[in-house]
């Protein structure tokens, strides 16, 4: 029964359900057209949500990648010192990101024509996609990036070993660096060098950031990078030097072209003046000659064209002639001298003029050198000239100027005998100055030359003299305390002073003038021309004081003190030497202090000789000053210049000590000091002190009745003092006359003959043969 009821229930339910399903299906069919749009909207929404999710996911990945790249570049910069390359890649990535977000590319300003001209068109750097802001710094910033990339390219190529020569770097720089952009490139290169050097310095103390590279490998890599950068710097400096040289040549051409006919030679001398900041090399002189010819090739003024062409030919010929001589410029020093028996012997001191005359091709220069080799004044060259050709004089000027400069440079580089090199350099300056002075004087007095032309060339030659002396005045070894002697044969100095004491009115009151006047004043002093010497030293003292040249000021105080001693004004001599000593100690000038001590002791010794009785206290004080000067001179022997200065001080101190002990009637002690003074004075080149040493040695030996040494020293003192026209030569000649009366004529002649070898060592064969004439001259003047 239950079963029957249940079946009936299920049957009824099934019928109902079937009916319901039928109704529902019918209803769905009726509403199907209404539900389709709704489902489409739901699907689109789901798709959009999925798309946004995916976009957000990839955007996050992109941001992470950018952050990673930035961090990687920072480490790249820190570890490898490739700052410019890393910055370039970073800026490119940032610019691309910025460009991707820009909505309107047409609003971005483009490069103007003027801006494009700042960029070298031959550069391999891509400019099509460059975007810059319209600011004044935009182009320099772009150039910095371009030049940084160029530097990195060269460095990378170098490290790979793909550069076969320096010419590659030179060509890359020429091709890629635009005109006027050198400062920007230099700044970029300097930053790169400093960065690499900084990284190299940190290798020793900072830990390695990458374990795969040891500090040793990193240091080696950075050193190679640094060398590559230094090669770039070297080639860039070469390029800049070429530009400066070319600019100097161009400016020189314009100066010569615009100069008047009468001043063209002087303008050329100004251009080749070695005291200028831009010193012309041989290549520049050749280039100058070429460009002068080109500049006047189309000139319609025939006379002007011909004159400038002659000037250019003279320049080119001068350079060519000097190049022929250059290889054997100092060969004369090592050439042996032939004797009458055709034997050869060593000649420690030779003259170069004859040797140079055989090797130079210029006719006028050959005449000048041959004349000087024969011991004849250079004025004879002008007397023999019937016609003055400007080409020949320009050629001679170039040759002689180059010889003088090269000789000085060679002497200054002598490592084995720096004292000889210094002495030879001094002699070279003075000897060439004398030659040009002689030529200047000859042009002024020549009657075979038109007065206007002669005056023009005289001024030009004197202009060269001033150039030589100005160069000389800047040398550390400039002889503020002597050293006036000539190496090339005419070392009597009379000709030197006759021409070098020309009033230097054309030179302003500069430091150079003060030093030149000091030299001339000392030269006048050793010739016995004390008023002239005083005048020069007072002028130099005033100029040096105004110019703040304390060493020169102290030197002139010391020199003035010695002049006062010679004029027997001993109180003034002591006053000047005391002022020199105070100023030297105030300014820390140890050389001036040592000379002041020697001069003060020297002055006091001669002052004490004038007293009626010997004041031991005065002599003791003077001797103390002289010994302190000797002690201080020993501390000045560290350099070649210090060695020479030390010998000058020692010569003065030893001579003064010898004279003091002669007065104190201690001739044996005097001989000991004077012999040391003779040795010291040979290095100093002070002919006056050398003559005084021999004179007082003769007196000391005479007091000890050593007659033969007295004869020998009297002869040397008489000749050396007479050669520099010092009045003390008569004192030596008087002593020799006394010795002759004691020994007799034959004995005296035999004593002199026995000392011939030693005498020739100091004054040569000509000096030895001149001794009897000097003695007769003294006797006639009595």
TrEMBL record:
Record bears the keyword Nuclease: no
Membrane-crossing residue ranges in chain numbering: 39-59
Amino-acid biosynthesis found in the keyword field: no
Keywords on record: Membrane, Transmembrane, Transmembrane helix
Residues covered by region (Disordered): 93-116
A Pfam short name: TPR_12
Amino acid composition bias (Polar residues), ranges on this chain: 93-103
Protein name: Tetratricopeptide repeat protein
Species the sequence originates in: Nostoc punctiforme FACHB-252
